Amino acid sequence: MEKEKRPIIQKPRGTLDILPEDMPVWLKIENTAREVCRRYGFHEIRFPTFEATELFSRGVGDTSDVVQKEMYTFEDRDHRSFTLRPEGTACIVRSIIENGKCFDAMPLKLAYLINCFRYEKPQAGRTREFYQFGIEMFGAESASADALVLALAHTFISELGIRDIKLHINSIGCKKCRPAYYDKLREYFRAHKDELCDTCRERLEKNPLRILDSKSPICKDIAKDAPRSIDNLCEDCDNHQKELCAQLDKMGIPYEIDTNIVRGLDYYTRTVFEFIVPTIGAQSTVLGGGRYDGLVSELGGPELPGIGFATGITRLIEAMKQAGIETKDENDFPLIYLASMGKDAEMFASATAERLRRKNIRAESDICSRSLKAQMKYADKIGALYTVVIGDNELSSDKAVLKNMKSGDVREISLSAIDNELG
Ligand code: HAM
Predict the structure, then answer these.
(1) Span 89-102, pLDDT tens digits
(2) 20-177+233-322 fold
(3) 171 pocket-lining for ligand 1 (C-beta < 6 Å)
């Protein structure tokens, strides 16, 4: 009787399998991120995948889309509410407070590579589980700190080879200038109250800035003529913004002021920015960030300014693909495949491969006792750069033929000195 076929289990909607053939570009991004961070003095940190739900409602802000609509929240067996991290900033702030790092030498410069979770409608460039590289810097208030963070972002993206990129910056003010600006916004939006979507109507009193970030086309249209934060900055914020622009000019980092950028998370103050790659479609923001001077104290720590950014790794990959950037590395392929004929040769090939690996040479040999034809097919498939065939004759004479798989060139070598022949 035929056995009943079990249905295949599929990955959850909006998640990714990152397969071995996908890895070169991921590694290129991760390695570049780590290398650039080292150059700028940022140190890697890791933290839990889930945190107390309150961390995000208080940190990211309960008027943000992320908290209102997108969190993966669950109760554990003890009926405590936890949430899969939708981002890293609030987690890092929690971690530095909890670990007493707020009193370390400042500035404190941290970096992370994480997966995040948001219940969004999956589409090109937007998934429910996604990956970020980000940095956070604490204890530096000046515009030079903003410039440093932007310079790191700019260097990182440039070193990936992405050229078609635009930096948009804006300032959304601080707790001093914001109340008067919010009043102006409320006044403006109240005149359109009936046209606003339910979410935005709710935001009107609590956080009118959020309406500027609405996804509803009608609200977006109304927001076009709303008062702009940049026209309503206090003197300190205005000076900060001007200084940042001057510093970016001096550093040769191109940017444009974009008054529409307000960012989707509630913790930002003063500088906000996004790096945009216009060629990758609707989800063209590859990197977003800004200053968050009130977040550490909001989460129970001391008054400590902060600024940082996060990039979406899959969006960077798309930008690299569009730009035709090659990330395959020769080191991902075996340097030599030792094919064998017969049991003695198979054992010799295995021992030789092991000797080569101990000398840091990428070597493979047959471990399935397959025909020579099948072995050569496999060597070709895995992209071995050289092959050598070992049989009884080769064993007794110590001589074998080394073949360069790319050029087809062959030459005789000594098996016992094979490591000296590969170079
Ligand atoms: P964010 O703008 O929400 O900011 O996310 C940063 C980047 O992550 C986005 O620009 C985008 O490239 C990527 N991203 C976000 N959501 C998705 C998604 N569903 N699928 C694929 N990629 C996505 C933050 O998360 C802040 N924590 C950044 C920050 C750090 N601000 C200050 N410090």
Answers:
(1) 999 999 999 999 99
(2) BirA Bifunctional Protein; domain 2 (3.30.930)
(3) no
